[in-house]
Amino acid sequence: MEPQEKTSDTRRMSLRGAALEAVLNVTSGTTRAALFAVLLAAVIFGCAGAEFLQLREINMRVREFVSSGASTVLVEYAGRIDGAACESLASVDGVQAAGALRAASARPVAEVLPMTPLPALEATPGAVELLASGDSMEIHALNGAEMDGVWLSTQAAEVVGAQVGDTVPLSDGSRMHIAGIYASPEDGRTGNTSYAVVMPVRSTSVGKGFDVCMVKAWPVPRSLESLALMSVRELSGNRDDQPHVRQLNATLGSKLESKRMYASRGTVYMPWMACVLAMALGFAAIWSRRLEFASALHCGVPKLALMAQSLLETMSWEIVALAICSPLFAVAWLGWEGADGMQVIMLMGRSAIGALAGAICGALIAVLCVRERNLFRYFKGRG
Q1: What is the distance, to the nearest Å, from the Cα of residue 330 to the centroid of all Cα atoms in its chain?
Q2: Full-model pTM
Q3: Please, which residues have CB within 8 angstroms of residue 332's CB and are 6 or more apart in sequence?
Q4: Do the strands 175-182 and 95-103 form a parallel or antiparallel pair, or are they unpaired?
Q5: Which residue ranges does UniProt annotate as crossing the membrane (predicted)?
Q6: Vertex 325, ends 321 and 331: CA angle to 5°?
Q7: How buried is 31 (Cβ within 10 angstroms: 0-12 exposed, 13-18 middle, 19+ buried)?
Q8: How many Å apart are CA 136 and CA 128, to the nearest integer?
Q9: Does a cis peptide bond (omega within 30 degrees of 0) precede residue 117?
């Protein structure tokens, strides 16, 4: 037992000495921690930054597609849309909002335009939320005050000269409270909502059926059009009188292959590239000091202790490299549009993790490649 105890004590002393040697090398500049920290930071910054730019480009295309109305499906069937059935489509995975519209029986006439009645639509709460989202990818959740009054399209609001919260006098002596104004960009959208007064109603309101069911979704379910047709109360026996399904805006195409874009992006192998480049740095950091390590082996220092020393020294400049790159991740987190910012950070972090692992592997491989028997050759080749 005594020889084993001595061996254990020797190993502990060797590892303790390796840790002390690593600290001395870092503080004295032998490790060249600053140089390799900057180089490793450049690798992480380049690979993670490229990943961020690629993901942002994909995200911008997705947001443009959805916010333009390209992912919004309309089912048009005058008087035969079930408002409650249409609203229930909002519970389907991927569907952001769904609601029904129909032409109002009465058209308000503003005092400022006594000869021009305003086109009026009745909309279920889901349809109002969908319209309120305008040219945004996100859905605007309505509060009680926003359901108490009417909504104007931006064009109608400009003509009437109204703002949110205003009360517009009508020619019959009544007043119309403006609960909200929704964006109606002229970007290829079709329909009768670009210039209209929208009056919120309940999906189960008494009266005729609705004319249109609007469904906004992302990602778009494959069966969205079939699901949207479930909002139809009953089909006509006339073959020429059938529901019509179409996109709200078809200028950007019928679909966007976002999954294919993500899977085939040019930065998909960035973590491996970061790993290889960092491995070269880690190897160079130790191999450039092979004479020092061979001398230590000649003096009886165990290779395990040298590996521990190189590990600690490598980690010292890895920590500095991460600190240098932290603003990149902060900017990516704060500047990301959408709710999936954490996923973006995780994808960028794969490049950082690959670089950290690569640098450590490179350093350990370099230590393993150092041979005591080559001490004289290392000495002759120094400088």
Answers
A1: 14
A2: 0.81
A3: 52, 341, 344, 345, 348
A4: unpaired
A5: 33-53, 268-287, 319-336, 348-370
A6: 170
A7: buried
A8: 14
A9: no
